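Quick log. Single chain, no ligands specified.
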Amino acid sequence: MRYGSIALALVCLYASNSYAALEVITSSEKNTLKDIERQYNIDPQLISVNDKFSRHNKKANDIEELKKKIVSEKARYEELVGQLQDKILAKANMPAFYRQIEDTVNGIDSLETRTRLDTQTLEGEREDIQAEYKSINAKRSEKSQKLFKLKKDITDRLVADLSKSSSELPVNINGSTECSKFQSIADCLKESKSYILSNTRNESPFLTDKSVLLDYEVLDANMNMHGELNYKVAMKFKPSYNKKIDAIINEELGLKSAMITLVSNVDADWYINGNKVGTGKKLFHEIPLGKHGILASYQSEDKSSVENIEGNGVFNYNFDKPQVANSVERLPEQPKQAEKAKPKAKYTLFSDNTSMPKGDAKKVTTEKGYEYFMGVKPSTKKQVIEFTNEPTEK
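-> predicted structure:
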């Protein structure tokens, strides 16, 4: 005998005369679910806060660039101060050199002020964004409580209905299978019975492989000359609450999680609903079903979207990689001869073409601790020693 697949052309799920048709979720319960979905619709708020978070990350990256520039400008300042003694001794164009140092100092101060103010603004934005995500999560929590309450009501109804002694699940099936041309219809049906029962139990959410068969009757059967058998079978089972029903309820109400895969072509920072979940080119993360904001951040660029998670899935966020400059092989540095140790430069600037009366030079100190004298020319041996750090001939 050759078995073919059973075509479940008609599956009638109905109960005994004592109560209405068996349904996992009734129309009334579906309406309650729709009301909950409308009441806790977070889509607009989630889209808005996800966009804000993307802009927030861009500003944070800009601040990091400012901090790098400050470090660079301070290094430049130290380099200029290191040249100060040589410039004085060489009697170079000192006013222009002093202005260069002064511009650098003022530039550093401006950058630090801007960084401080931008950081304060960013901190305020971060708190606002976190508050919005907290509000969204609170709605999610309330929605989950309502959904679990609805699930309990559905479960209680099903358990009560299915546990009644009068509960029955009649199933009528129109199907077909292939038999040997030399078999009788009765023999073919007899051999097909276990296969028909197994498939019926697998198809119905109210049945398991241990469900009790109450009645089995072949209503009609005919076989053609090629051995193809068409039949109509009526069965009755004792239904029961089982894990298939529980899975269907969780699926309909969105009370289960999914495993999502986050993929990028770079080592991106990944955020879900404002919370960082990791860094890398490929991450796996378990997430509840429903709407979620996903954001990938790499350097100064962000990519984000609001996704309706209904099951396991893969989300790709690719970035344009920066061009890498060709590397240059450097020759090993030659050992430097020991240089005469120079005294550490003081933050004191002088001019070579202006003078002030003796004893009237005034020290100027900035907020950042930079101090200097302007427009002083040494006029005595003592000033020569103080200004150049070099002794004079006696």
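The chain is about 40% helix and 20% strand.
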